[in-house]
Each structure stands twice: as structure tokens, then as C-alpha cells.
Design goal:
Number of strands: 8
Structural class: alpha+beta
Shape: elongated
Number of helices: 8
Number of domains: 2
Strand content: 15-25%
Order of helices and strands: HHHEEHEEEHHHEEEH
Strand order of the largest sheet: 5-4-3-8-7-6
CATH architecture of the largest domain: 2-Layer Sandwich
CATH superfamily of the largest domain: GAF domain
Length: about 260
């Protein structure tokens, strides 16, 4: 049995009792050798996953577990809540749909959820992949709503020129980000790639802070004129739906038959 599996047995035993436990109780519940159990408890206490009461010596689950659980549920609920809307966006637009957030390095965005188009010619970007923020619709939305310090950091950095249409001038990009915030969505047409057009809109969390964006992305040959206009309306509505779900905690099931407003 691996160390992680043994540690999991200890945590499971503490969770099952629902109260602080003595060392001997944990030994009986886990059937682990005393020396092994002691080493595991020392490590778990050190990491905050388990706490030991000073006055009694009893062991209980640590606050760190609650923090990790909250983070896991928050991450899971975003994907769960957004998925029906993302699936509808793919159905309406015929293009792939993504959720994205700024990476630790705000010059990049990370794709955290994806629903892919079934069309033979489509844009596919796997979950976890990062792309430059300044030349993607997802990145422009996130930078437009980011704190001023984050914007300044990105605007003061070297902006990579990906195509002839990439906005690599800091002043021009700052104006573009202001326009994105004013209209409530971003478009990139052949800025990241000569063949790709994307549309993104802001998603606000339950505190009203924009930290996520939803986007559709497809070949520029298809996302143009009336098709692009319909995609913009669909994405903006989809972003609003997800924001409402995150704020209220409800799981909306979008009407797949609805046409873009």
C-alpha cells in the first residue's frame, strides 16, 4: 500500500468517527502499525490536513481539508454549471466553445473547460493549454476587467506579433481593452492566427468579479458577417447565463431551441 493510500485511510477514519480520536482508536480503525501511523500523523499535522489538540492529544480533521474541499467544489461547480450553456453555444454557432481564466502569468490565458465542434474543420484547444492574452478574445476580456496593476504589467511587457493584425502596441491595446469593457465582449479576427476568429464575453463570479470568460472560436471563413453577429449575441447571452448561475447557485438548463436574441 502506498503512503498516499495509508494517509487516506487515516483521513477516512477521522471522517467516519465525526469527532476527535485517540491514537489507539486510529490504530484500530486503520489497522496500521503504530510506527507507520505515527509517521503519517506527524506529516498530516505538519501539512494542516490533521490537527492535534494540545490539551488532550486527540486528533481531528484539519481546516486545510475544508479549504481544499471548497476549492475543489468551486472548480467543479463552474464546469458543471457552464456545461449546458457551452453545449448550446456549440449547437447554435457550430463552433468550439471554451471557458478561460488568466494564468499565473497574466500575459497568458488558460483554458479550463471545452466543448468541441463536430464540424470537420474546427478549432480545437485542449483544456489546460495556454495562449497569449493580448491577441485572443478570451485574453482581451480578462485583461479588460482585470485590476489596473495587472493591465499595466501586461501592457509594459513585450507583446508578441503573431500575425499582421496582432495589436502589439501598448497604447493601441489599452484603447482596445477599454472598448471591450464598454461593449461587453471581445472579438479577434486573424490576430492570433491568420485562420481563426473568436468571440468572448465576461463571466462574473458570485461576488460580481469577472475572473472567467466564455468564448466560441472557429475558422475565419465561417465566423464572418451575419454569422459573426449571431455568435456575438449568443456568447454574450451565454456569459450572462453562467454569471447568473454562479451568483444564485442554480443550474439552468438552456433551451436548445432558442434562437440568438
Amino acid at each position: 500500500m502506498s503512503t498516499i493510500a495509508r494517509a487516506s485511510k487515516v483521513l477516512d477514519a477521522l471522517a467516519a468517527t465525526g469527532r476527535p480520536c485517540r491514537f489507539a482508536e486510529l490504530g484500530r480503525a486503520t489497522a496500521l502499525p503504530s510506527a507507520t501511523l505515527h509517521r503519517l500523523l506527524v506529516a498530516l499535522v505538519r501539512t494542516g490536513l490533521v490537527e492535534q489538540e494540545q490539551h488532550t492529544g486527540l486528533y481531528r480533521l484539519g481546516v486545510r481539508l475544508a479549504e481544499l474541499s471548497h476549492a475543489a467544489l468551486k472548480s467543479l461547480s463552474l464546469g458543471d454549471l457552464a456545461l449546458p450553456t457551452m453545449q448550446r453555444l456549440v449547437s447554435e454557432t457550430g463552433e468550439s466553445c471554451y471557458l478561460a481564466r488568466l494564468a499565473r502569468d497574466p500575459r497568458m490565458v488558460t483554458y479550463i473547460e471545452a466543448v468541441y465542434s463536430e464540424q470537420l474543420l474546427s478549432v480545437t484547444s485542449y483544456t489546460g493549454r495556454m495562449s497569449p492574452a493580448h491577441c485572443t478574445a478570451t485574453g482581451k476580456v480578462l485583461l479588460a476587467y482585470a485590476p489596473e496593476a495587472v493591465r499595466r504589467r501586461v501592457l509594459s511587457s513585450r507583446l508578441e506579433v503573431r500575425t499582421a493584425r496582432t495589436i502589439a502596441d501598448a497604447v493601441a491595446l489599452a484603447r482596445e481593452l477599454d472598448r471591450v469593457r464598454e461593449r461587453g465582449y471581445a472579438i479577434t479576427q486573424r490576430e492570433y492566427s491568420d485562420e481563426i476568429t473568436s468571440v468572448a464575453a465576461p463571466v462574473a463570479n458570485r461576488f460580481g468579479v469577472v475572473d472567467t470568460t466564455v468564448a466560441v472560436c472557429g475558422p475565419s471563413s465561417r465566423l464572418r458577417d451575419g454569422t459573426l453577429a449571431r455568435a456575438i449575441r449568443a456568447v454574450v447571452r451565454g456569459a450572462d447565463e453562467i454569471s447568473v448561475q454562479l451568483k444564485t447557485g442554480t443550474h439552468l438548463i438552456p433551451d436548445a431551441s432558442a434562437s440568438p436574441a
